Amino acid sequence: MRRKQGLWVMMTALFFWGLTSCGGADLTKTKRQEPAKSETSDKASVHEGRIKVVHYVGGKLGDKGFFDSAERGLKKAEYVFGFETSTVEGGEDSTVWKAGLEKLAASGVYDVIVVGTTPLRELVKELAGRYPKQRFVFYDDTIQGIPNVYAMLYSQSEGSFLAGAFAAMVSTSPELSGANPEKKIGFIGGVDNEIINDFKSGYEQGALFIDPDMQVVAVYVGDFVNQGKAKKLAKTQYLLQKVDIIYNVAGAAGLGLLKAGNEAGKYTIGVDSNQNPLYPGSVLTSMLKNVDESVFRALSKIRGGSLPFGTTEVLGVKVSGIGIARDELYEKYVPNIIKEKIKDIEGKIASGEIRVKSSLTKVSP
Predict the structure, then answer these.
(1) Is the pTM of this model over 0.85?
(2) Same fold yes or no, 45-154 and 156-288+317-363
């Protein structure tokens, strides 16, 4: 009897020890999880994709320039922060843009709508007023004083100064076989508006900084999509007006002028994104509006709650908002004397030793 009683006591003890042991393991796990949830609940929601961002394109992706660059910034935010992102292409028919963008704003689905550029500026201002809870990140123009809109303007005058100085040196370079004795460089813009003319102003300043006798031959396509017309305008500049390098400020239309430069054995400067690989040795460099990094920067600040809505920020050389494309093709085809001079000019712009005037005086950096 005593033996049976001892066995019963031992089994009972083992049973309760097992319960305590298992319970202790579960409690330990719970204690480890609870602080993580309470301490990082806000950040966790971001990583779970609860910040929803849509990019509305007033045109189509595939321009190998501006819109593609903005899209890269969006996708980088998706990859790095876990944002839930999507893109809506409005197409080339501007009459449908209002309905398309308003549908996104009215849906209440998106925390942020990323959109550009100048042709959509007034529409964004209107919709921001009608949908005050919808936040917008607007790139490539100014929108001031609207509390749910943050805008970014790139110092295209500074970037174009670099492009103009570069073009002037190419035009007189004895090392480049496509250069001719004429001190003429070309400029082809998409449309005749304030932003494009700010490019032109900076380009002229940079060219004259290198050579006061340099002439800039400028013309406009009339839109940002007609590649055939841009190509024809470029051929005229190369063959009849004796320019040897043209600056592309015509968006997707500019792909036509880049092709014309390659066919003529002449030179071009790309824009917005790195277009050097399109025609190696003909597209010698590209003026970069670092739209991708600026969009990513804005979205990262939204995540941290520090984006200054209601303002426009001007991003220039000093903060790497703009610059020129230096890749292996740039290293291969551009003479060292030009590369060194451009590096020197860039440093002087960043330090303030060279002051580039902007034709957009109301938002000069």
Answers:
(1) no
(2) yes
Instruction: Specify the fold of 156-288+317-363.
Output: Rossmann fold (3.40.50)
Domain ranges of the chain: 45-154, 156-288+317-363
Give me the phi and psi of 194, to 5 degrees please.
-60, -45
Fold of 45-154: Rossmann fold (3.40.50)
DSSP string, 224-259: SS-HHHHHHHHHHHHHTS--SEEEEESGGGHHHHHH
Walk along the chain (365 residues) and give the pLDDT tens digit of each residue. 444 444 344 444 433 334 333 333 332 232 323 333 323 233 333 334 479 999 999 999 987 778 998 999 999 999 999 999 999 999 989 999 999 999 999 999 999 999 999 899 999 999 999 999 999 999 988 999 999 999 998 899 999 999 999 999 999 999 999 999 999 999 999 999 988 999 999 999 999 999 999 999 999 999 999 999 999 999 999 999 999 999 999 988 999 999 999 999 999 999 988 999 999 999 999 999 899 999 999 999 999 999 999 999 999 999 888 999 999 999 999 999 999 999 999 999 999 999 999 987 544 33
Rounded CA-CA distance 83/45 in Å is 10
Look at residues 267, 260, 198, 262 and name the one whose alpha carbon lies nearest to residue 229.
260
- For residue 48, the Cα-to-chain-centroid distance in whole angstroms is 25
Taking the C-alpha atoms of residue 343 and residue 161, their distance in angstroms, rounded to an integer, is 13
Q: How far apart are CA 207 and CA 115, in angstroms?
A: 32
